[in-house]
Amino acid sequence: MKKFLAISAALGLLAACGSTPDPNSKSSKSNGSTNTDVTKPCVGWIKWSSGSTPPPYSSRWTLVLSVDGAKASFSHGPSYGEKPTFEAKEFSVDARKSQALCKALRDVPAELNPKVGGPAMGWKVTGASGGATDDNFGPAYKAALEIIGSRRLDKAKSKFSQWADEYKKSREASPHT
Questions:
Q1: What's the whole-model pTM score?
Q2: pLDDT tens digits for range 126-145
Q3: Phi, then psi, of 142 in degrees rounded to 5
Q4: Each residue of 3-45: pLDDT tens digit?
Q5: Dist CA 34 CA 156 (whole Å)
């Protein structure tokens, strides 16, 4: 049995070494990406969450790229069960920014041991699908924020903060807490 396990491990190692991705290939293997045609316009969705704490202490946002990557929709709100506190629909996007986002997502390394409880991001866009925790998604997160824009993000954070204050007040007034 030990001999069988040793042979199996050696064959697995050889297979892994032989399957090194071709850097010139249009296929991405990082982080579970399976789409082989990365020359198409960048469309799909990206979801980010600040963590696993309960409302009102955590938030999430979703960015959806459509119309060949030239349009986007953005929503922001509480992480669990509540409707978004801010939405911006069908705003124009520079195609270079959406392509940069798809490339950054394709480049996110696969995580062997993802962190638990902290910020997390998941996506399914042209050429990439997967998820990562904050140690690995930095460049993709920044590329997504470039599309969202600081004014939109600031307004979303402000609306969320107002919601969080109201939520806390309602919980303090509730006889069930």
A1: 0.77
A2: 989 999 998 789 999 999 99
A3: -65, -40
A4: 333 333 333 333 333 323 333 333 334 554 444 456 789 999 9
A5: 33
Tell me which amino acid residue 40 is: K
Three-class SS of residue 147? helix
SS3 88: strand
What mean pLDDT value characterizes the chain? 80
Percent of the chain with pLDDT over 90: 57
Three-point CA angle 120, 124, 126, nearest 5°: 135
Measured between alpha carbons, how far is 18 from 36 in angstroms, rounded to an integer?
Answer: 19
Q: How many CB atoms lie within 10 A of CB 5?
A: 9
Cβ atoms 51, 117 nearer than 8 A: yes
